[in-house]
Amino acid sequence: MKRRLIVWILAILCLAGCTAPAVRKPNATNAKKTPPPAPPKTVRVVAFGDFMLHRPQLDAAKGPEGYDFKENFRYLRPYIDGADMAMINLETTLTDGSRGYTTYPVFSSPKEVARDFKETGFDVISTANNHAYDKLKDGVDYTYDVLKEQDLDVVGTGKERAEPLVKEVNGIRLGILSYTYGLNGFDGVLANSENPESVRLLTRERVQEDVARLNEEGVDLILSYVHWGEEYRKEANADQKEKLKMLADAGVALVLGSHPHVPQGIDNVVGKEMTTFCAYSMGNFVSNQRRNNMGGRRTDVGQMVTAQIIKDESGTRIAEFMPKPLYVDKYVDGGLHYEVIPAEAALLGEIPVERIETLRPVLEETVADHTVRISPDLLLSNDGI
């Protein structure tokens, strides 16, 4: 019996020695494992509409040591600081003030705007709009130089020629464009000048040319400011929708609209290679246009658009597209003030606003109007990514 037990034990040990181990040590061949996919690269973009300066705003910003516009951005710093790239449309020209400043109908504003853009945290300034040529070529050149002196990227105008912008952010190469429908009556002057391409006008040929050039430079995704549409119209018109399809077919993935001075709706269209997301009009970022002096038009309301761009092994795409309502608070307290309020965040207490109780009714109205205007089916959130 004991002999039989010993035989069984030896047999079991033999079988155990011949059985392959549960985890095999790698040999020279299978040591080369497929590397895990690289983590996705991301860029968070925040974009704003028309930065305009009327005479009361100049008076409000003037101090003993010059002009200061930074209070306009006071409540938006968390969004700008939290973005990888912050953009705004400068709808005026800049000057040193030696010949004074002008407002409607031709605009020239203090050069301190460029400094305050930089100190606030902006990265890219769009300059193609109908007021870009208000001070002719000298105005284009001076504005461009002052912005570049502040190490700001400029797109839409140029001293010789308005060039597409290539900007690499967090390892993603972005192509950035800016166009305008026209030039406040100066279109013919530009066309007959020595530098007829110093402001980028919106045409199919120019868009196709610019996109082709950006693709040659190996960009991952293209976005564009577009100055278009009808002033004070609350909905996009047929021309905007037609031009959006043209931009989408050309390969522009994100369109940021300006010019109507009131917010419009959003849209997305399927182009030849991708879905393009569009805010038809982000409205005024800041101005002196108020609903009580503009026939009830919502010119004191704008949009802030946030977009998240993701690049991974499958390609580069827009993973978030979210417009948020803004309200321009104009008030007197020892002087005139203009502060842009993120309406939803202020109502929720996410951004503490000193005048919240005074502003609550108009902010609630602003959010309600925004909710009606913005179809939730067209929003894109990255919550699931």
UniProtKB/TrEMBL annotation:
- DNA-binding in keyword set: no
- Residue stretches making up the Capsule synthesis protein CapA domain: 44-289
Keywords (alphabetical) are: Signal
Record-linked Gene3D superfamilies: 3.60.21.10
Please name the Pfam families in this protein's record.
Answer: PGA_cap
Plastid is among the record's keywords: no
Q: Which domain of life is it from?
A: Bacteria
Indicate the secretion signal residues.
Answer: 1-22
InterPro entries, A to Z = Capsule_synth_CapA (IPR019079), CW_Biosynth-Accessory (IPR052169), Metallo-depent_PP-like (IPR029052)
Q: Which residues form a coiled coil?
A: none
Q: Give the similarity note.
A: Belongs to the CapA family.
Q: Do you know which PANTHER family this protein is assigned to? A: CAPSULE BIOSYNTHESIS PROTEIN CAPA, POLYGLUTAMINE SYNTHESIS ACCESSORY PROTEIN RV0574C-RELATED
Name of this chain's protein: Bacterial capsule synthesis protein PGA_cap
